[in-house]
Amino acid sequence: MSVEQPLWRALTAYRVLTLLYALTLYAYGYDDYDHPLGAGAYMAVLTVWTALTVRMVSSAERCTLRFLAGDLTVAVVGILLTPLVDTHDRIAEGTPTLPSIWTAGAVLGFAIKGGWRWAAWASTVVCAANIIERGGFAQDAVHMLMLVWVASVAIGYVVEVARASERTLARALRIEAATRERERLARDIHDSVLQVLAMVQRRGAAIGGEAAELGQMAGEQEIALRTLISTGPATGPMAGPATAAAESVEPAGTVLLKVAADTPAAEMASEGERSDLLALLAPHAGSHVTLSGPGTAVPLPAEAAAELAAAVGAALDNVRVHAGEDAHAWILVEDEPDAVTVTVRDDGPGIPEGRLADAEREGRLGVALSIRGRLRDLGGSAEWISAPGQGTEVELSVPRQGETGR
């Protein structure tokens, strides 16, 4: 909903309430008018106009400039008609004009629709009409008119600031959405394409010959692709098509889920919109990976379970790449009341201090996106504990966010 929509609703209520107030003043001073029937005719027109135009002030789209001009005309005519139907003594005493404070509604319509400049113009017209009606610059009239002028201009300025803030917020949300989509694509690419290119480069170099040339080309493409996905959010004109194209890419963790689905345990893991995290992690267990966890299922929302399992897969990929094929890894799943924590520990050489930050700057996004990015999107956290020669421990935690019925 637009930030200014409540102002239009308030203006609608204001016009109705001030009409009732003007009618009450007319009825109370009926016997004091020189021409009460003439005043009554204007009040009837004002009532019909207000009733017929209620929907016109319900939104910015319906409130057109033509309507605002007509609304202001009705108010000004009522002000200028007052000396013709009321006594000179009552006017000199400061008796309200026929439309009374209903006139401010016409001015506020200009303020909400066009900002402070429109409000200043409409207020000036109303002030001029009131000065003509009073026949001069009466002190009480000037005070009231200045109040209307200042208030309408202030409201118009506030509306302009609100609109600018709304545009800024919308742009920030678009940038955030584009950034998240880019990170999601980067995670998918890291978990699939980049891993394959890296493997081709290593195997090609080991085989030699033409395979080495193919491996070198794969390495060059890997570097180019890493640079592409780490250059920042796409916020320009191409962001729309890129986002649309992203919808056709398989979500992060899909490959892991497909592998897990080949096992009988995983076939029974998903119930409705919840999945058993242990069943999704089971395919990783083997001679070099030990999986430990509770004796019962660890249910999580399907999307959260898939993302957490994919993050564990990325951590194990790092173990194989940096600690070697013979390194041993241990996966520990802890099912706590308020969170699910998965710890991945290895007996590799550890991570030198500052290496993770350097890798992110170099475009190696396994930690930045495939692990930390996934956990951030789930509202969780990822922590690394490592020392040279003492292995590495990665702690991944996902909050349950008030889940019940476990």
TrEMBL record:
Coiled-coil zones: none
Membrane spanning residue stretches: 12-29, 41-58, 65-85, 105-129, 141-159
Where does the DUF5931 domain start and stop, copy by copy? 1-170
Pfam families, per database record: DUF5931 (PF19354), HATPase_c (PF02518), HisKA_3 (PF07730)
Instruction: State the Gene Ontology terms under molecular function.
Output: kinase activity
- The Histidine kinase/HSP90-like ATPase domain extends over 307-401
Signal transduction histidine kinase subgroup 3 dimerisation and phosphoacceptor domain: residues covered: 181-220
* Record's keyword terms, sorted: Kinase, Membrane, Transferase, Transmembrane, Transmembrane helix, Two-component regulatory system
Q: Where is this region: Disordered?
A: 384-406
Question: InterPro entries per the record?
Answer: DUF5931 (IPR045975), HATPase_C_sf (IPR036890), HATPase_dom (IPR003594), Sensor_HK_TwoCompSys (IPR050482), Sig_transdc_His_kin_sub3_dim/P (IPR011712)
Designated name of the protein: MacS family sensor histidine kinase
Species whose genome carries this gene: Streptomyces milbemycinicus
Q: What is the lineage of its organism?
A: Bacteria, Bacillati, Actinomycetota, Actinomycetes, Kitasatosporales
